[in-house]
Design brief:
Elements: H1 5-28, H2 45-64, H3 69-72, H4 85-101, E1 109-112, E2 115-118, H5 119-141, H6 149-159, H7 163-166, H8 184-191
Helix pairs in contact: 1-4, 1-5, 2-4, 2-5, 5-6, 6-8
């Protein structure tokens, strides 16, 4: 599926917004909150931020260098945050944004765990992941849980076609029925097994 220049600009804008959204919440984590629980079963605040940071670290390898998952191996397993988690997140987010925004990057193919994937689709999946985990992190640290409408709409369009399949991976809770009459954000979170 070819993407137009307009599509590419819009996708990169959503990606930058999603990185900023999650980053705001990373910077709002108080020093006494890193071990607090999150809506993600068995993940602390630090685990959640570590997961998203590692995801961003993969992007230059996969998109810029054309590496396969096996080539990177376990480079980003375990703790990638070190002693300066906020700075580590910021650097990883900048590198991911730069990799996706490079000329022609979104026209490439990347090799993910489930096979060849258009880089634009990979970027869209990353946006959705950032949006949903921004809510998780906000809930965990007591920050505003309101997500921007444009990002919610984007994530809902992205995840709706395959939401029911995600639970089978074991990485997502099964979808739940959203309360009647609730908005797009509640529907998105319910699709991904979150109780608001």
């Amino acid at each position: 599926m070819g993407h137009t220049k307009k599509d590419t600009v819009a996708l990169l804008a959503r990606h930058a917004e999603a990185l900023a959204l999650f980053g705001e919440r990373v910077h709002a984590v108080r020093s006494d909150q890193w071990d607090d629980a999150t809506p993600c079963a068995a993940w602390s605040v630090r685990d959640l931020v570590n997961h998203l940071t590692a995801e961003q670290l993969w992007v230059p390898d996969l998109v810029t260098d054309g590496a396969a998952i096996a080539d990177v191996g376990d480079a980003y397993d375990g703790d990638v945050l070190g002693s300066r988690p906020r700075a580590t997140w910021d650097a990883a987010a900048r590198a991911a944004r730069k990799a996706f925004a490079a000329p022609g990057a979104l026209e490439r193919t990347v090799w993910l765990s489930y096979g060849e994937t258009p880089a634009a689709d990979y970027c869209a999946q990353m946006v959705t992941d950032l949006v949903v985990h921004s809510w998780d992190l906000a809930r965990a640290i007591g920050a505003s849980e309101r997500l921007p409408d444009a990002l919610v709409g984007f994530a809902l369009d992205e995840v709706t076609p395959y939401a029911s399949e995600l639970a089978k991976t074991g990485l997502f809770a099964p979808p739940i029925e959203p309360p009647p009459g609730d908005g797009h954000q509640t529907r998105l979170l319910a699709l991904l097994g979150r109780r608001v």
